[in-house]
Design brief:
This protein is α/β, with parallel strands linked by helices. It has two domains: 3-50 and 363-402, Urease, subunit C, domain 1; 52-357, Metal-dependent hydrolases (TIM Barrel). Helices cover 35% and strands 19% of the residues. It is built from 13 helices and 16 strands. It has an eight-stranded parallel β-sheet, sandwiched between helices. A four-stranded mixed β-sheet has the order 3-2-1-4, with no helix packed on it.
């Protein structure tokens, strides 16, 4: 075998086991695998999980924070405007360098699959897409990356974008993105959704839209997206990020929309830390948290995932590309802090996110891909609490990142 992880503790198992990987595939999961492998890792009873998955990140805008002017209003609208000058000056090399730096951070933090959004509009043209496609080629050995052709300035609102979206898909983008709520009228928002599905059908591509990213209860794109998904037979192939307005709807309408979302098999991606920063800016106490109805969606059986969204850009000044950090934010903002709920927030950055990306062979059973994380923790709670990167990050049976953390108390109790 290429790799054996000894004494691995998988989630839900009552006793440790060994995990053997050969040819990029898990070929054995059993106590005490006989023989030796080319490489062995002694997990010593520590937690071993499949890799983290980031279902939403804007890599083309990442790390602009060092050179941009401040977002004085801390609003979504100003953040969009700040990027215009940068997009006009984008180079493919610059996008690759900034995206690559974040991808390297992500791998060290245990993320081995990413859905990356590239702006497609008449401001930056196709440079963001070309840059992310080049980054995907460069970093393909380390991380799987889906590229989303994303109409950041709208489609009807930005004439020429529809043609650019088709060009972006022809270049090799994987997913058709959307931003229907940003259009000027409800009619245009519905037409936006229709155009995205037209392009997706032409390319047999999945769809991922940023929907109702506002606390305004009048923003109602999600309902139409769910109905459109059902009518197009696209169940299980659509994701919707943010959906903040869902939290502002009255209870009966929210329940109706959640039911449609469940029926349509739409994944809802909530990026809690971004919602905390951008939403509720005009509120007088109490200030809204800005996230969607995470608990209600989960109770209804909707697949809910969490993403990093932004890394040091006009929308958010921080970001370590750590999905473990995102899960911790979700635990706080969605009030998911009971023991079983900690498993749920971890699912949002692993199995649920993998389902959104439709990742094949994801897991820790025989026949699954040989991708796994060995944590310096014995449980999900400990991993979330300590917030340390995995001790070992394995892709295809090869160790691609290692982290060692040391800390020493140099003074004793009562020492002067």
């Amino acid at each position: 075998m290429d790799l054996i992880v000894r004494q691995a503790r998988r989630r839900g198992d009552t006793a440790p086991c060994d995990i053997g990987v050969e040819g990029g595939t898990i070929v054995a999961v059993e106590p005490g695998i006989a023989g030796r492998a080319a490489r062995e890792i002694d997990a010593s009873g520590r937690l071993v999980t499949p890799p983290l998955v980031n279902p939403h990140v804007h890599l083309d805008k990442a790390r602009l924070g060092e050179v941009m002017r401040p977002n004085a209003s801390q609003t979504l609208q100003e953040a969009i405007a700040i990027t215009w000058d940068f997009k006009r000056a984008y180079t493919e090399t610059g996008v690759v360098e900034r995206a690559g730096a974040v991808l390297e951070m992500a791998v060290r933090e245990g993320t081995l699959a990413v859905r990356a959004f590239a702006d497609v509009d008449t401001v930056g043209g196709l440079r963001p897409v070309r840059g992310l496609l080049a980054a995907r080629a460069r970093y393909g050995r380390l991380v799987r990356m889906d590229v989303v052709a994303f109409p950041q300035e709208g489609i009807l609102r930005d004439p020429g974008t529809e043609a650019l979206l088709r060009e972006a898909m022809a270049l090799g983008a994987d997913v058709v993105g959307g931003l229907p709520w940003y259009e000027l009228t409800d009619e245009d928002a519905r037409r936006h959704v229709d155009i995205v599905f037209d392009i997706a059908r032409e390319r047999n591509a999945d769809v991922h839209m940023l929907v109702d990213d506002t606390d305004d209860a009048n923003s109602r794109s999600l309902e139409y997206l769910a109905v459109k998904t059902l009518r197009e037979g696209y169940a299980g192939r659509v994701s919707a990020s943010h959906c903040g307005a869902l939290a502002a709807y009255n209870a009966s309408y929210a329940a109706k929309v959640i039911g449609l979302v469940r029926e349509a098999g739409i994944t809802i991606v909530s990026n809690p830390h971004i919602s905390l920063v951008l939403a509720g800016r005009r509120d007088v106490e109490p200030v809204r948290r800005g996230i969607t109805r995470v608990r209600e969606l989960l109770r209804a059986g909707v697949n809910v995932a969490s993403g990093q969204d932004d890394v040091d850009d006009p929308y958010y000044p921080f970001g370590r590309a750590s999905q473990l950090e995102v899960a911790l934010f979700m635990a706080h903002t969605a009030h998911l802090t009971y023991p079983d709920e900690l498993d749920t927030v971890f699912d949002m950055v692993t199995t649920n996110a993998a389902r959104a990306l439709r990742l094949p062979r994801y897991g820790l059973e025989r026949g699954d891909a040989g991708d796994l994380l060995v944590w310096d923790a014995s449980s999900i709670k400990e991993a979330l609490t300590r917030q340390r990167p995995p001790a070992h990050v394995v892709r295809g049976g090869a160790v691609v990142a290692r982290t060692t953390v040391t800390s020493e108390l140099v003074a004793g109790i009562g020492d002067p």
